[in-house]
Design goal:
mainly alpha; 2 helices; elongated; single chain
Length: 55
């Protein structure tokens, strides 16, 4: 799990909404995909340091 589910739920609750129990897992998978793509971009640019622009 890459995201803190309690923080996600708190954020969503602040928007006046509820969240399902499996939302944290789904969001974590999305974050993982974003980071995997950014890692490839970083490597393709000949770097070992991931930067915000790689996202």
């Amino acid at each position: 799990m890459l995201v803190v589910s309690s923080k996600v739920k708190e954020y969503i609750k602040g928007k006046g909404l509820n969240s399902s129990g499996d939302l944290g897992d789904a969001l974590s998978k999305k974050v993982e995909k974003i980071l995997d793509e950014a890692a490839e971009r970083t490597k393709a640019n000949g770097r070992k340091t991931m930067r915000p622009e790689d996202l």
